[in-house]
Inverse folding.
C-alpha cells in the first residue's frame, strides 16, 4: 500500500512539474514574470513609427557632441589644406594588437607599392622589374622618416602624386592604425621616438581639436 501511495504521489509531482513548464508559447501570467513588457520587449523596425518618442522615429541620432567608442570625430579638413594637415594629429593610442592590425592592413593596401619593409620596393616595382618604372616612396628615407602624421593621413585619404585615395577602403581609425605602424617602424630606423602607443599621453593638438566638436559621431 505504501509503495502504491509513493507511486501516486511521484506521478502527481511529475505531472505538476510538466504542466508548469512552458510549452513554447509566450506566458504573461501575472505573478509569474516580473515586468513582462520588459522581459518580452516589443521590437521596432528601423524607419517605422514609434510611439515612445515625440518625433515618432525609431531610428535615433547619436547624442550631440559624443563619439562612438573606439572612433574619432569626423575629420573636416579639405584636400589641399597643406598647412592644416602638417599640424593635424590624433588622440588615439594604439596597443600591440592594434599595431599588428596596422601592419596587416598596411601589407594589404600599402605593401604592394611601398614594400612590406617600407623601403619602396614592393611587388609593383621589384627593383625595376615590376610594372612601375619609378620606385614608390621609401618610407624609411630622409624625406619620409620624420614626416608629420597629418601629411601621411592626407596622403592616405586623398592620395599623393601617383598614389590614389584610400578613403573608401579605410575608415578613420584604420588610417591612423597604418600611420601608427609606420611611425613605430620608422622609430626603429633612426626616426623620431614613437609616441602613438598606449603608454604615451595623448597630444594636445588632436584631430578632435582640429575638427568641429559639435559634429555628430560617425557610426
Amino acid at each position: 500500500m505504501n509503495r502504491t501511495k509513493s507511486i501516486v504521489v511521484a506521478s502527481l509531482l511529475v505531472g505538476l512539474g510538466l504542466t508548469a513548464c512552458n510549452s513554447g508559447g509566450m506566458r504573461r501570467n501575472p505573478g509569474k514574470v516580473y515586468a513582462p513588457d520588459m522581459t518580452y520587449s516589443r521590437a521596432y523596425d528601423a524607419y517605422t513609427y514609434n510611439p515612445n518618442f515625440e518625433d515618432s522615429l525609431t531610428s535615433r541620432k547619436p547624442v550631440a557632441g559624443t563619439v562612438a567608442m573606439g572612433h574619432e570625430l569626423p575629420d573636416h579638413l579639405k584636400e589641399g589644406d597643406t598647412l592644416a594637415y602638417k599640424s593635424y594629429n590624433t588622440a588615439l593610442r594604439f596597443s600591440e594588437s592594434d599595431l599588428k592590425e596596422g601592419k596587416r592592413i598596411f601589407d594589404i593596401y600599402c605593401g604592394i607599392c611601398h614594400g612590406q619593409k617600407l623601403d619602396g620596393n614592393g611587388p609593383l616595382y621589384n627593383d625595376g622589374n615590376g610594372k612601375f618604372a619609378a620606385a614608390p616612396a621609401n618610407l624609411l628615407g630622409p624625406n619620409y622618416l620624420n614626416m608629420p602624421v597629418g601629411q601621411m593621413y592626407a596622403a592616405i585619404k586623398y592620395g599623393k602624386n601617383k598614389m590614389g585615395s584610400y578613403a573608401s577602403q579605410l575608415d578613420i581609425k584604420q588610417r591612423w592604425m597604418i600611420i601608427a605602424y609606420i611611425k613605430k617602424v620608422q622609430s626603429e630606423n633612426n626616426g623620431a621616438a614613437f609616441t602613438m602607443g598606449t603608454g604615451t599621453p595623448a597630444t594636445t593638438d588632436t584631430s578632435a581639436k582640429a575638427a568641429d566638436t559639435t559634429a555628430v559621431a560617425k557610426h
